[in-house]
Every structure is written in C-alpha cells, then in structure tokens.
Design goal:
2 domains, Arc Repressor Mutant, subunit A, 12 helices, mainly alpha, about 220 residues
C-alpha cells in the first residue's frame, strides 16, 4: 500500500464517500454510464482524482455504490402489511427508482452479484415466503416476480430515453401502431383491439397490473 501524507489523509476524509456517490448519481442521471468518468467527477467535486480513489477503487465500484445508494432507500422503507401489498410496494418502489435513474436497470443486469441486488433478492424472497408459497415453489415464484419487475422497469426507462425531449407519448405510440400495420401483409385483429389502450395506457398502472397477475397465479398454484 502506498504511504499517504497526513495532508492527503485529511483531504480524503473531508471528501466523504456519500458526497462522491451522490455527485456520481447526478452525472449518471444527466449523462448516463458513458458520462461518468473520474475526470468528470473530479471536476464536479473540485478535487483531484486521488481523493476520490481514496474512497472508491474504480468505476465499477462507484457504479455499485451509486446503485446501492438508490436501491437502499427503496428496500429499507420497512414495508408493512400483508405480503401481497408489500410485494406491490417493493415492485413500485423499484419501478420508480429505475425510471428516475435509468442507468440502474442496465447495471443491475451487468453486475447481479452486487449488494443492491442482494437487497432486492432478499426483500422479495422474504415476502414470497410469507405468502405461504410451498418451499418447492418459492424459487419459481420469486424468479418470476424479480424478472418481471426488473425487466419491465428497465425497458420502461429505456423507452423513455429513446423519445426526444418534448415528444408527445401518445402520438409516438400511434405512429408505432401505424407502422406495424403498414409493415404487415396480414390483418392484425389483436393489435386493432388493443390499439386505444396501448396509446392511452399508464405505465405504472400497467406495471402493477402485471404484478397482480403474477400474484394471482402464485395464489392459484397453491390451491
């Protein structure tokens, strides 16, 4: 280990890890994963990169810490009430967090061993157990829930970033439907039947409807 002078130690201590992580989250929200560099972070914090490396080993560790900082606030709320309601609250908390911080969804997928994922895994798993799901079916129930929650939340956040600022969402979805219809040589009866709902649907409400369907399936398989 390199020897550090007393002066460098005091500077590093003055720059807390929490401040570094919160600043990194601001950069990630504004510029995405590619925008987060130690040079950009140093400029925002008005410090040298050495003071940052004192607290964070590399970019991977910084992304892990930033993801956990956000997800800890979701998972540490102490969800109360019946397991079904707790699962829906956790799911919606994760959905909202990933929508506010779109980079989180991709990072959770790339680094599933990180602490933030452990929080999610355990938080949902405990609630699945409390639903009374038989031990042999708990893994299937949990994996279906977690894959749906992270998949839909991540895709929703990615969709939001594709649309240019100021784009009317309903008009954009209508355009997509028209393109699908024009590119098909056959009738699309199902698409026609759901077109209005697709254009007007609320993402959060639709997401929770999916969670409800999964929970009903879990209940049904216990009969």
């Amino acid at each position: 280990m390199k020897n550090r002078s007393p002066g460098s130690t005091r500077r590093a201590e003055a720059l807390s890890k929490d401040r570094i992580v919160e600043t990194a989250i601001g950069i990630l929200d504004a510029d995405g994963d590619n925008g987060l560099t130690f040079r950009a972070l140093s400029a925002r914090l008005e410090t040298g990169s050495g003071a940052i490396y004192w607290h964070v080993a590399d970019k991977q560790a910084l992304l892990d810490a930033a993801t956990d900082h956000v997800m800890a606030r979701v998972m540490e709320k102490g969800f109360k009430g019946a397991p079904r309601e707790a699962i829906k609250a956790i799911a919606l908390g994760i959905f909202d967090a990933i929508e506010a911080h779109p980079w989180i969804g991709a990072h959770l997928t790339r680094a599933p061993w990180q602490i933030a994922m452990i929080r999610i895994v355990e938080g949902l798993g405990v609630q699945v157990q409390q639903l009374g799901v038989p031990a042999a079916a708990q893994f299937d129930a949990w994996s279906t829930l977690i894959n749906y929650i992270l998949g839909v939340a991540g895709q929703n956040a990615a969709n939001d970033r594709v649309l240019p600022p100021g784009t009317d969402r309903s008009e954009s979805l209508s355009t997509v439907i028209h393109r699908w219809a024009n590119n098909s040589s056959k009738p699309l009866p199902f698409l026609e039947s759901i077109a209005k709902q697709l254009v007007e649907h609320d993402d959060r409400a639709q997401f929770l409807a999916g969670v409800d369907l999964i929970l009903r399936g879990i209940d049904g398989n216990q009969l």
